[in-house]
Amino acid sequence: MKFARILAIAAALVAAALAHAGDGKTHRVAFHVDQNDPAVMNLVLNNVSNLMEYYQDKGEQVQIEVVAYGPGLHMFREDTSPVKDRLKHLSSGTFPSTVKFSACGNTQKGMEKREGHAIPIVPEATSISVGWSVAVPRRVRLGRPFSEVSTG
Question: Which residues contact 36 (CB under 8 A, 6 or more apart)?
Fold first, then answer.
């Protein structure tokens, strides 16, 4: 049931993004991952790939940000990520579009405290201070519209 909800939300995002295609603007899409579930992580990465391919075929640009926090941080953990190879592949082949992977620094610090050691983040991701609560308001403050997909 939860996976069906995620799939429906992802389909709505793709439909919304495609509806704005052709307007000459750079398209912006944000995904967030808050579950340690490889199916959810792969679904998000599938949608990232599909959006990049769609806009590339149209000769348009898209800026995509994937933010992981809470249990979803495992997506960007060097030691536990089930999607490390896909992150590397997506990072290397995005031109002219861009994909940014952002790891919640608060979640990372909390995991380090609980586990008693440093939590390494994959090189494709950047640690940001507060995860989703920083990524979305930053875009809104800068007046940059975005589409959002929630996995929670």
Answer: 71, 72, 74, 75
